[in-house]
User: Fold these one by one.
Assistant:
Number 1:
Amino acid sequence: MLVNNRSNKKAKKTSPRTDSRSAWFTLSILSSTLLAVMFSETMLLPAIPEIMHDFNVPYSTSAWIFSAYLIVAAVMTPIAGKLSDIYGKKKVLLTLLVIYIAGIIAGGFANSISFLLVSRVIQGVGLAAVPAAFSLLRDSFPPQKLAIAIGVFGSAYSGGSVVGLLVGASIIQNFGWHATFFSIAPVAVIVATMIAKFVRDNSKNAQLLTIKGTGDVKRRLNIDLKGALALSSTISSFLIALTLIETGINSENVIQIASSFIASIASLAVFVFIERKAAFP
């Protein structure tokens, strides 16, 4: 009788209808994360000419405002995925959002191109919150409804981009480009608060791994630092080369471009070699 009562209580707690409502509510909150991130990024696009004028920098320098951000985000995404497996997806997501908010606020106080680029690097670290949010979303939906959830989540990308461009131009014209950062900070804080309060992490055993060839289960407490560094070098070198190409190929940077591509290829080879031998890649 006691066993049946306990099972009935568990069934009530996790009824299909309740789980469905919770999943869709989770989708709306996590989609807000992507919406806010894309909103803040496209808001900054119309500000590039004004930033170049304020800091008296050429186009080749201003290109790093977005490149530095994207390079760090590309490097941090797989690292954030590994950290999510170890510490839990919700914890990592909230940590990244806090970092992102700190970067946004810092960008609002930028008084030099160097300070702005540092703030963009911090924001790039926080951008890894987007794939972390997607991973959390994937655990909230059954396979038969996951495609719909992914479609809604992806639509926030386009929605945030369009709204960011329209609203950003108006904010820059009336209040200056610094206001683009300050305007999105409260939204990011609200999103982070809602995730902390309402979103559940359903991947309770994400930090556990069955060891190949045995029936043992072991905690994934090790970060493949060598692999992470090799992958970071591969991605950053490749994106740096592309950025240098975008700013224009000339006799001064052609060696840097070639060196970056070579470094990227070499790092990729090292990464593959390391991961083939890693116990926990």
Number 2:
Amino acid sequence: MLYPTIVWAVEQHYRIGIVAPRIDVVEELGWRIERDFLIEQIRLHGQTTESYGYTQIVISTVQQLLRFYQAFDLLIVDEFDAYPLVDNPVLLYAIQRAVKVTGSLVYLTATLPKRLAPGIQLLTLNKRFHGGKLPLLEVQFCWNWRRYLPSHLKRQLQILDAKQQVLIFVPRVNDLDPLAEKLRAYSKGRVETIHAQAKNRQAVIKAFKTGDIQLLVTTSLLERGVTFPKIDVAIMGAEEALYTKAMLIQIAGRCGRSVGRKDGHVWTYIQTQTIKIKQVNRELRTLNEEE
């Protein structure tokens, strides 16, 4: 959906803005555009070091739009339901201000909010680009995963191929290091952690993409907007309140994102079953059945 829109806009000689709420998503989008299009671009966010200059494509965090006024013929807002954009009147105003009066706004998300602004036309795509289905949450009951590594996860790690990678989500930053230490006893490869305040997070993401890291333990930082081919996912304590339904759907969507592997496992470790978990799987099944 994104690429045909960009191709059309480039052919019209339009100036294109692509924005996202998080730096990591901006870098991911910039990397993809740089790989697939021979068009000059600039990436703008709080860690940008290059000087600003005019380019046909600008890829930035939403906050950077405060620097632009009626600058874009086409403005694409990725993950528009994510923090810090959601319910932020200043950033929503910046979006409206940055697009030309004759320009177009495109909002993208995999988890549609219940309420949309007036005038938005809705287009729903229920299939992934490769035609594969969304993976369901594979529920595994465990007791006190913070103290004991779940037996099911131990078995999966023991039979895991040396080149197979797993992205492991935890609810809180202080869960990262204790879990990573337990995982190192069972991993055949490198184990690392990542969170929003980590200074080396771009290097860690790059190392995971290239396969140098086998197990990456993360907070909700990597719930959306990033693509790692051929991975499995584990969610620790998915019944905890921090995980919303939208977040769990986004996390499940990290699996099966490549033509080479259209499916994947989403091992979901919980101490108690919740209505939320059942609702997520019900919604995923519904999406998989729709044409």
Number 3:
Amino acid sequence: MTLPIHLVFIINEHSRNGKFFSKKLPDIMKSYSLTYEVLKTSKDDSFKKSAIALLNSLNDSSRLIVAGGDGTLNAVITVLESLNLSTTLGYVPTGSGNDFARSHQLSFDYRQAIEQIVHQEEATILDTLVISQDDLTLNAINSFGIGLDGMVNYSLENSKNKKRLGNFSYFATILSAYFSQKSFDVTIKQNNQIMYFPEVLLIVCVNHKFFGGGIPIHPQAVPTDELVNIIIAEKVSFFELITLLLKVLINQSHLSHKKLHSFNGPACTIILDSHQYGQTDGEWIKVHGNYKIQTKKRAFWI
């Protein structure tokens, strides 16, 4: 594998430490005899147009590096998918949750993170999640959640706590969202089986063990096995919820609880009659209808 001579950074300065990273980058790059360029994210159409032009211009001598949170990495992958590009990605975690970085033991030291990307000779091939509904396609590097998980992310997005996201902030928001989230019914089709759950608080499809800013929701999940890991939480009392959260924190034994169901397979379909909040990689969405979830391989400089 040819080492790069040009680095291309896409930086989300609205992420938790994005502006700090932007300020540090010129000094960090003095250590390398490489050229580099920076595209800063924004929510207007001009950014997407610039990103498309930039991504289409990359060649084998360039390395693409995303600096932001899980949502930023998701957004760049979504653009790559729309362009049918298999560009290998480097990642510098500057966000709030950083579950992708936690799951793959990436450095939170910016110099070390860039050093690893620059000198990585072979890419690592990982699973990502692809969520399809009619003409809509969503992507996730970490998780796709419906119900309480979506409600939590919606609440965090509309509060001042997102930039302080971690176990405590997420757990605290779970406790408050519990009283707003009504149970709902769902049907799951997987491995030629049809499973119906009449009273559910949470459905989450995960790609590795962490979500919600470092919560080990599925300790056995493997991001290279081409399997979709699903957890379904049935309606529980508030006391049972506290017990489950303590199990997650103390010894990750929560999956043995009688009201939690965990299974996996190469693909699954979620059939949802009600309207719920959902999330992909911590970014809330509205969900309703049928969703097919499967895995797709993507290369990363990790």
Number 4:
Amino acid sequence: MRKLPPLRALHCFEAVSDYRSFSTAARALNLTHGAISHQVRSLEDWLDARLFDRHSGGVVLTADGERLKTACAVAFERLERECAGIRSAGRSNVVVIGCSSSFLAHWLLPRLKRFTYGDEANGTSLRFDTTADLISLRRGKIELLIAGECQQADEGVERRLFADDLIGPVCMPGYAETLEGPDAILQGDLLHAKSRPTAWQEWGRAVGSSTIPVDGQVFETLSLSIEAARAGFGYAIAPEIVVQEELRDGRLSAPLGFVTAHHATYLYSHVDRHLSQSARSFRSWLLNQAR
């Protein structure tokens, strides 16, 4: 019988060490803050060692914590790799992509038929994870990740520019017929997304407005704020790349166009030697679609 602490406690410890936050780790694991704190405390009791120094801004690993984090990374990565290999035997054409629900709904899904019926598909089956992040990619849970600026990718992860972000207000066609410039929008009915809480302020600074937009309806996701704009509830602020199809089809209007934002969207993947042929093909297709 191996003399090891409970696997659940080690799993919780690794999540906290990755996110440097009990609250963020709890959300990632769908646990309560109290549950994940209990697991870490039980692990510290089992080891008779303190693993984290706790302070108001988060947590910092102790020397023992750093040692255990390294051991967990090696052990869990080996387990995940072998388990994934067993599960994927005979399923090499399955590609799992991580992206936001808004990007999936407004940019990717409208274009997928072009891939499905094109030569690149070659029997590839696509699956999507709208909660994935760079840690999910590193751990092999997904093969491709479309996201904004992430922490520095390590040597096993490649980052390619997907698109420079241009942002602007969008609304129902005809909604802004009497519009008289940026200040008129910023004083109107603004629709906010929790996932992009400072987008309106960023746009206001870019167009040189002195108005600081804070009021308006707040939606859980960018996708919901865009749908509300389409329904005539006001103006949503959105990246051009996300609303291209709606603008082209006349379902949305961008009365003042788009301005450059100080961030971009990237496509992250494992280095080629660890990437399936199906994933490499879909990555190439994605980059071509973004041009």
